[in-house]
Amino acid sequence: MNRFNFPDLGIGVGLRTVHFKHILGSQPDVDWFEALSENYMDTGGRPRYVLEKVAERYPIVLHGVSLSIGGTDPLDFDYLRKLKALARSVNARWISDHLCWTGVSGRNVHDLLPMPYNAESLRHTAERVKIVSDFLETPLVVENPSSYVEFTTSTMTEWDFLAELAAESDCGLLLDVNNIYVSSFNHSFDPNVYVDAIPADRVVQVHLAGHQNHGTHIIDTHNDFVIDEVWSLYGRACARIGDVSTLMEWDADIPDFETVHAEARKAEAFRGSRESGVGGRSDGLDQREPTTDNRQPDEAEVAYAAV
Amino acid sequence: MPLSDAETGSRESGVGGRSKNLDLRPTIFSDPRPPTPDPRSEVVLGALQEWMQSVVTHHGDVYEAAEEASIGVETVILPSATLQPIQRVGIYHSMYMLRMIEALGVDYGALANILGEETFEELVRAYVLRFPSRSYTLNRLGDALPEFIATSKLLKGRVFLRDLASLELAMTQVFDEAETEPLPGDAVSSIAPEQIAGARIVPIPALRLVSADYDVNEAFQAWREERAIKPRRGKTWIAVHRRDYGVFRMTLTREAFAFLGFLIAGETIGSAITMFHRRFRRLPEQNELFTWFRDWSAAGLFAAIEVD
Ligand SMILES: [Fe+2]
Asked: What is the pTM of this model?
């Protein structure tokens, strides 16, 4: 168990539009869902309706891509207010985003742009993580990104940076083992060293995904099955961290839900002897602690017309 | 006034930008220019981010971007075992435009189809240069595209293309609007006769009116049914609305469109009738009014009736 007492939700799948109908209709036996925050924040349409229906039955975690925690523009409190409201309405177990920046001078590039790893970035990012966690009234969970460049101004490794960031800002970590693999290939480091250096008690969640290897570099496409090397990194992470909420990301060329779920469930083989396992969802819900006092599933009680 | 099929398609914003099938070789790997290493620098975070954004979002190729930038690429980016600094930052540069094209292609599917891949890409490149995203969501990236098309010298048949884009924009807006329970179908007919003239109709938020010089409703339907899109001139009036989370397109007559427009603008039914008279030099017939209110109520266009 991590130091925040965020529970092990089991093995989850990223909530994607192409699976909406299947999920609402078949109510698959999946432990939990991760929803991309920005896809549900500014809509009162079908995506929001589906998310709230899903949240009535499954635990939800919100995963963002536009917080720009490392950005040098001021934090966007309009965004944060909407994020907080969404988190409350779906009783999000925690909120994560990436160690990255997404734009400056009021613009958004809509990419997870990399940070230089040095003292200036660390101070800057840690300060912002603290502000965000205070505002959201829950420790922000920060994910290691995949990246394609290294900066001349970096003075420390990404894993040291993350460990120091977590210690300084008291945030949680979302360890994406595919991202570790992608970056290790692109930047020629040993991914095992990375996994071994991460403070285990801060890891709240793990991501799995597929990628595209172009020979000279890997692009983090999330459009394929998880490769063996990434599974073995996952196994190594589990051995250090213990059983931890695990999620399969599949964002392009998305196959049917059962294929994605089956890929996610391969994680079972690397996890310890977890009694309830897949299917323990309903029982587990009652035992889970809310991430904050004020995250009651108020709006989840609203009745909606059938789809 | 036939209702078209519900448009319940997916509209997942390209947030996060995981572009698929990315082959960088033609653009990134073709330049044989050798690297010119610069000494390490003390570029501060803010300047580094400004620099990287300017390179990544540059409308030209990454070499042009680097040449125009204030800091040399090698000052900021290290080479990898296999790629030069410019090739590495070029990965982000390529993905930026792919993401913009993908996002706008989702919202403007019919427009992209009729323009063809190359022209649509050119349009997107020109558009995002002028209207780059300033929001945490990509959902509203295309809000200015119809007006941009109307003034763009790049395109032939601008009026039709603007009209088609206006319809698709209305559909994305309606898709995302707040959900409101519509009034029951008999609500309007149950207003007391003496209160009808002073009654105000509050529309559901998920309603937009689109008037066009071309039959874009048919053009859009053709695209949906994978038929060839043929621009056909002819004034068209459409109410785009959402019901049970599906987006619908309802064609209207000129008179119905005008009358509904008055109501949506907040006029009372009495003053909408007066304005209708001023516009068409006749009063709406009893039968017309009955049919309009019956169809609009049945389609769930009204959220409330305010009676003084
Ligand atoms: Fe991830």
From this structure: 0.86
